[in-house]
Amino acid sequence: MKIHNLTVEKAIESLKSDLQGLTSIEAKRRLQEFGYNRVEKIKGESILLRFSRGFTHFFALILWLAALLALFADYKDPGKGMGLLAIAILGVILVNGVFSFWQEYQAEQAISMLQKLLPNQVKPLRDNKVLQVQSSELVPGDLLVLEEGDSVPADCRVIQAFGLKVNNATVTGESIALYRDEQPSQQDNILHSTNILLAGTSVVSGQAKVLVFATGMHTEFGKIAHLTQSSKQTQSPLQKEVIFLSRIVAILATGLGVIFFLIGQLIGLSFWENFIFAIGIIVANVPEGLLPTVTLALAMASKRMAKKSALIRHLPSVETLGSATVICTDKTGTLTQNSMEVKKLFLSGQVYNFSSSEKLDSLTKNYRVLFEAALFCHNLKETENNGKTALLGEPMEIALVKMAKQVLLEPIKYPRLYEVAFDSDRKRLSTLHQTSQGLVLYTKGALETLLPLCNKIQTENGIEELSLEVRESFNQAQNSMAEQGLRVLAFAYKTVEPNYEPSSLEENLILLGIVGLEDPPRPEVPNAIEKCRNAGIKVIMLTGDHPKTAKAIAREVGLVRSDNPTIITGEQLQKISDTQLQLILDEKEIIFARLAADQKMRIVIILKRKSEIVAVTGDGVNDAPALKNADIGIAMGITGTDVARESAHMILMDDNFASIVNAIEEGRAVFDNIRKFLTYILTSNVPELIPYLAFVLFKIPLPLTIIQILAVDLGTDMLPALGLGIEKPNPEIMNKPPRPLKERLVNLPLLIRAYLFLGVMEAIAALSVFFFVLHDGGWKYGEILPSHNILYLQATTACLSTIIVMQVVNVFLCKSDRHSAFSYNLFSNKLVLLGVIIELGLILWIDYTSLGNLIFGTSPISLKVWLFAIPFAIAMLIIEECRKWIVRRNKTLEPTKGFVELRK
Questions:
Q1: pLDDT, tens digit, for every residue of 503-534?
Q2: Among 250, 274, 633, 838, which has the minimal tally of Cβ within 10 Å of its Cβ?
Q3: Which CATH code fits 325-338+522-630?
Q4: pTM for this structure?
């Protein structure tokens, strides 16, 4: 038999211990045999390995290759700027890798500041003496005394209990305080055994002597932590997209390099000249600025999320949250406040909504004794904290005292003379007090145990006989409250003669009424649930709590609207196959209750099998495996356990479900913003590439040098691109469904717009101005110009300057692929505006300073060149605005609207 099925004597005997505790020698021997009582730290990569990952992912490898090619080209043909390009690319790799690591390291440091869950010091009984030792030195067979407020340091069997209640929410997810005693349990499942205390839980009232039977990784706490460690981290959707984009870039750049090399061979260029030229083509088509821009966009979004109480541990998780299609949310402490509150009273056939009752005066007059019972019948303790008095104990009793004080107003003190303690068989507590009316016994407990002890009832008209009809009305009221997810307690009292017999105190009681309490929902949650519904995000409740409680809370926050939502308990889930579960998860409204840790993880895995992007919220140890297996695990920062926070991708520092919605909005904006700056960056690749093509095919002077391409990619384009990366979310973004899982970051419409529309216009403009300067200087077709020729320098300067002018207009066009650039406030994004100013300042420095001329191979150009270039930029603005107008006019129906309705 298992330890929870044994009697106290057999349980102690099974661990070869006794009531005097272990000897110190035996404790040391067992410590060597069973190991330290600590949960192994969640496995993670070493700091060096995590740091190195920023320099070895696929896109970084492409940049390494580009830098090596540039160094080789500089070695074979020095003086063309390829060496400087290689150094710049290496700088990009270094800055990006260090910045990414630093962002995540800072997040980890913030998490490490949060408190630990397990206690540091405990007092076991050894050698028949109470010793103080580190909790890590506890061993099976140790005896401990635990009191209210203590955390449970190991899995323990209760051998003596006095009014003991525990909060198991961190391990099982149950929000209400549970009674525990020493009697053998008939339960098969140790998690719900009434004589077991689990490591990581806490004592909310009473005291107990307990026997340690499992420590460290052998505890239920440790088993869940091990389950978490064995789960592998998955790649975020953005990481997958960057890998895909990296492959496209590698294939495109290499393919163009090979094609141009073959063309060069066909037209008779020398092998090495042609090879160096092909390298230039490959490097020119690698968007060196893409990686730091993506990283910084994610970092900026994570900082905005942090201001909204969402701490991002891993940067790619920013965008993953925006892609979420399903949120699996815990109930206790996430949707609710994790505190009890009185909601309803049933007094003499009448139901009162306590929080909004207009009859407080009459309640005080006719039922004052009920509130006196709530005020005195408890086992709470008062503590001093910063000069303020606080109550320590079970949240339910704290809520009852608060209710009583709200109604009674004036302070009352009735000394307690005697107590009939609570136990799990009686399910009630009675306290005897000396009052102004004499001795009065106050009793509270479960209605089914209290009602048989009552023969009278307190009514508005005084004390009356308790009839069968009234008894039935109380039973119906209790059932109604339970259906609403309320915890129900009954109250009774009687006056007692001075010569009372303790054994007959709880006889012939006067029934006062019943009180319904709940763990209230967070007030902002219903609005957050509605936003999720409008955004096409499905919300599923996963809780360890009772199905009725879960259903009632779900209905109150708007998670459930229909009469018959699908409710699956952990026991039912055990009998359901994965195929059946996959079909059940198609239901519009679904609640999972009484779940174990592995079952939460199973649901997450099945949802991912359905190609959902899954976000999971939780705070307990039991949530950790699901948090780690989810696409985005969201742990609570205040009430969350260490294990949960270590397993999560994001921490809610205010434990507020509504903060998730704000973070989702930011996450969705990230994907859109990355597309915006990709369009902007890729557009400038075309006027950088086509001059090379014209140089090879038409035997013209090279319009743009490698160092000038570098000036665009890593100079003038960077800050405006970053500005696009931090654009504020579109107000309509949460009225659209999550992006389809198969939707690519770089899709065909983006490529067509960047390469075949905006890019072609920029290339035409750049080459037109290039030839304008050449012809104005007397150049004839076929004439070869030396690289240091003043006319050639002015022509390449004009080509470079025109690309910059076109990109200044393009950055405003790229704010949206549909909405007019004129619909945005010019000052709505100050970084874009600053980027444009710096961009123009940089090109003027490059064009008109001797240092700029020396570094970039440029020469000052005249005003008429600028005047010739500007109309091309105006033309691009007009043409793109016309395209957007056509799109808006023809795209009157949103193709995703039906999808949102379906998700609702």
A1: 889 999 999 999 999 888 888 889 989 999 99
A2: 838
A3: 3.40.50.1000
A4: 0.65
